[in-house]
Design goal:
Oligomer: single chain
Radius of gyration: 41 Å
Strand order of the largest sheet: 18-17-16-21-20-19
Strand content: 15-25%
Distance between the termini: 14 Å
Number of helices: 18
Amino acid sequence: MKKGKKSESEILRQKAEELLKKKQRKTDVQLSETQTLKLIHELEVCQIELELQNEELTLAKSNLQKSSEKYTELYDFAPSGYFTLSKEGKIIELNLMASRLLGKDHSSLVGNMFQFFVSESTKPVFNEFLTKVFSSKQKESCEIILTIPNKSPVYVYMSGIINKSENHCFITSFDISHRKYLEEEIKINEEKFRSIFEGAVDGILYLSKNLTVLEVNRAFSQITRIQKEDVIGKSGFNLAKKYVDLEQLPRLLKILKEIVSNKPIVLYEIYYNDKVIEIRSSKQVNGNHITILRDVTAQKQAIDHLLESQVYNQSLFDTLPLGLAITTMDGTLVDFNPAYGQIIGRTIEGCKKLTYWDITPNEYNEKEKQQLESLNKTGKYGPYEKEYIHKDGHLVPVSLQGKIIERDGTKYIWSSAEDITKRKRIENDFRQKAELDMALAQLYLPLISPISNISDIALIIKTYAQQLTKSRHCYVATIDPLNGDLLAHTLTEMMKDGQCAVIREEKKGMSFSKGKDGSYGRLWGHSLNTKKAFYTNDVKNHHASKGIPEGHINIEKFLSVPVILDQELVGQIGLANPKKDYTEKDIIVITRLAEFFAMAIRKQQFLDDLKARSKELELFNSAMLDREMRIIELKEEVNNLCKELNKPIRFPAIWDQKDD
């Protein structure tokens, strides 16, 4: 308190004394000494009560000022943009995020018309939205585009409601540009997929789980001569019975049953309308099936002609780009051309006593048995796809078919082998791209859903990460912003018998802590320390490997991608033990999933922050209400006290005065 200034209690006492003097001049009533002392006592008690009440009011005023400052800070630094607009759209007030949306300082925006920043294409939408806010007196919403100089268009979602005085409205705005750009990217990918689908040379059928035809391309109609409208929505079994002759029908029905039962269909061949058609099918991520039809009539005729010819044209044999081989009936290699030798990485001299089984992986034993049965029954086998073991150990995908021939009274197996490595690579790239696009499309809805949380999205990320990389194990984790611990939200069983010291008691996840030096340990922490994705197909010899913890399953191959948000480490996706070696393509795929997971973490951070701010605002409003109620109670107490003393002192005039 400054020197020379009176306190509020002194001012109150001075006014009371002046009122008492005036009253004493107006009355001639003489009080006895006892009455005077009693009255003085009552006045002193009243004065003490008033002083106490004045202190409470002073404290309440201080708390109110602090709450007001806190509310102002919350308003200015809220993650969403807040505007107060007039009926015409003039900016009355806005917070810091709102000024960032418009790309100018707060002081230069107040008084401007909001319509100046709205694109011409969405200005009618905004004007209609503003009219509805003031006319309906209910919460309204819209999506508009802001045009800011030297910046890309900003897509904004706005919701607004009129204030109590009905002369202004309050607007909440969110930047949804990233979501819009994502929608456009998905649309572009869908158009690309449609272009590839319709432009494919092979016939493609997209079938549901129960083999209802969902879609076919133009090549399907060209190969089968069946129009698209005649098959869409129809059962594959019914279509087979309608269009395929009785001789081929049992074979096709068997193929369809194997597709429904999810058995691996590599390659089948049927005869249809004087054509030889190859059929292959694969199960997709969502349980549906893609079946491919290929017209191989010309190729089949050429190969049959070659196989049926008894003329052994050595020149043609040596120069033909298609791999050709002759084996005995027990599989011993007798002769093969250079193209075949290139496929298996060997020469004739190096293949003496080498058998067909020496270059065939054991996993194909059952399929080879089926092909031998076909060879013994019909004199032919294939076409079907398998892999050969190259001399250096890697596997080469090939398409095989053959028949029994006779030379000098001895039976041999004449086989043709086509190296389909390039085709398989293209098919795998196409399938992986399609599966990735499908995965990202499936992630989009839970990403923008207000009810989905980090664990929900982590589970979807884990599922698609395993499917896209054919990995046996996976975990999806986030970084605890408070202590830097890595928390795995969802993971496959990585511990023998489900026991490990790092598993939390509630068994909902795993927690990995930083070391004393602030870095993460072992192989799993390598990508977190470097903030770079990596993979290794030789875990034991990786420089970051410290061995496998006790009770942990054996890790032979490992891939890790850090989740980065605004250059800050926020999570990790880890994978282990795929069917084949990891490659850079797997890094690219998981990095795309990590980008989606980063957006999910950003959304969760925003929701958590918004919830906390809302709670603080509720507490502030509650405190303000309590203060108003206390002031009303104090007024009532003072008035009651005056009535009890039968003194018409004008205390309400004091309470009704505005605070300094």
